[in-house]
Every structure is written in structure tokens, then in C-alpha cells.
Amino acid sequence: MQLSSVVTSPKLLLQLCISTVQCFLSSVFSKVRYWTTGACKGTSSALSPVDNKLDQKEIQNATIPTSVNYHFTRKCNYKCGFCFHTAKTSFVLPLEEAKRGLKLLKESGMEKINFSGGEPFLHDKGEFLGKLVQFCKQDLQLPSVSIVSNGSMIKEKWFQKYGDYLDILAVSCDSFDEETNQLIGRAQGRKSHLDCLYKIRNWCQQYKVAFKINSVINTFNVDEDMVESITQLAPCRWKVFQCLLIDGENAGEKALREAERFIISDQQFQEFLDRHSSVSCLVPESNEKMRNSYLILDEYMRFLDCREGRKDPSKSILDVGVKDAICFSGFDEKMFFKRGGKYLWSKADMKLEW
Description:
The chain contains 15 helices and 10 strands. The model is unreliable at 1-54 and 56-60 (pLDDT under 50). It has helices at 3-7, 10-36, 56-60, 95-107, 127-139, 156-162, 178-184, 193-206, 227-233, 266-275, 287-290, 317-320, 322-326, 333-338, 347-350; strands spanning 67-71, 112-116, 144-149, 168-172, 210-217, 237-242, 282-285, 295-297, 302-305, 312-316. InterPro entries: Aldolase_TIM, Elp3/MiaA/NifB-like_rSAM, RSAD2, RSAD2/Viperin_antiviral, rSAM, rSAM_sf.
């Protein structure tokens, strides 16, 4: 359209002015929303995309955080292709701030804390993790303190110093074939992941820590028979997960991983479970059971809502408290109990033969 035709048409000129003003206001509001939601890198108070104004009744009736998974670091020395909590930042809360958050959780009803990552033993060579474990058991008197690790960074001296304060140590192992672990990314160089697994199993027995194995079933291991190896290792629980896609983590344009090639069907997952039905310690978790049945805290102590297939953060419990933040967690408490999330999780109650 020529300029003369615009000038000679007051109606078109008015529409152009309105459009320009709308674009300007949209840009301003977008920036204001960005800064007020704490979305800039390094803050601990980013909001969920949903409205953050809560009804007082909703806060009072908020879910009790019986069992919480605290991913205090995203850094990891492995590169598992399906990882759904990837190394987007290197941020870790100061120790005293992390302790303050854990105390708030205990005061809100937390009975079990699980430390994860990333790789939790990577930060400060495991000392940061050890101090949190000791604090939760000794100071907070939590019934259950557990860790999920890939096992590669664990040393015996850690058990000597902190083993008394730990109830459960879960080591992630997706295959009992070294080549398969390499293909998955469950490895560091040519170091044997399985050697670490068996060594940690022995340390757990020696230092009286309940030993657990977590396996993610995917296209690379779905046809494997693990019965003999699991029976030999005899973990107290063998958690078997169906490979899960989370937008922004292991799927989508902004993801650090591309996990689509690892995904298996519900039928394939069920066939794997059927093949291992003789293993008494097996605890299966399909995508349906897993997605919303965990209370997940990220490195800023924000609850992560996975209902939309991504991880939308609440405000940090350090800023607004547990009851306010947990309302945005998307937590499905019924599914938590249905999948067996509550069990005998104190090693004192497990009556294990050491």
C-alpha cells in the first residue's frame, strides 16, 4: 500500500496507530511479566505460568509433603540419552539455605527426603550431600533419608563418615551389558558401571544401608533379561521406570537431550515386566504412574509441575513457604499411594539381614 493512500484514509491511519500502540504495550507487559516472575537466570522465585494468587482455603488444605525428591544439582558426569532432569544450570543453594528449606518441609509434614540430581555426589565431592543427609537424620529426625546416584563418584570413606545417617541408596543401572550402558550414555569413558554397582552393593551391606536399583526401560534394554543379575544383587527394591518424555528436558526445541529414540510403547513395557515377574522386589512405574505422583523440588527449591508434559516451577518454598508453593506442584496424591509411594522406608523398619 502506498503512503499517500494511507494518509488520505483516516480510518486506515487510525488502525495503524492502534496496531502500533498495541505492539508497544504488548512488549512492555512482556518485559514486566518476565522480571516480576523472577524468570531471569539465577533467581529462586520464578512463578508457575498459572496465577500465583491462592485462595486461603486452598493453602490450608494443601497436600502434606510426605515424601519429597530434592534435585539440588543438575550437573552430572554421565550423558544418559533419556535424562529428564538435565544440566541446564550449575546452581546449587548454599548449605544453610538448603537446610532452612529442609526444615520448612519437615515442619510441613515431610517424612522422607530423597536427594538426587544430576549426580548428587558430584558437588563438593559428596561432602555437601553428606552434610544434608546428616542434618536430615540427626537434626530433623526424619524416618527416611535416601539418595539416587549413578554410583560413579561414591567412595568408601563417604560411607564411613555418613553411612549411619542414610536409610536407602539407589543406584541407577539400566543394563547388565557394558556395551548397552555405553550406548545409553550410562558411563564415563570406559569405566565399568557394573563394577561400581557391585562395589556399592557390598558397601551398603557392610555399612548397613538399604540397597536399591533404579532402571529406565528403553529401546536399548527392553529385550534384556535381567532376572539373574537382579536376583544375585538382591536389592530391597528394584524400581523399573518406563522411559518418559518431558518437554524442555529431553524433548522439544529447548531440550538438552533428544529422548524420542529411547521411547517404548506401553505394550513393550508390559512385556518387559511380564518377563521379570518372578523378581519379588520389582516395583514397576509406567509413564501414567510416574508423571504426577512425585513431589519434585528443583535446585532453587521450587516444586515442579509435570501435568502439561513439562516442568513448570512454583515459587521457591524459601520465599513463600511450603503450603503456598505446593499448591502449584500438580501432585497427584492418590497416584502416589497407588504406585506404592509409601512403604517401609526406614532401614530400622525393613528388618534387613546385613
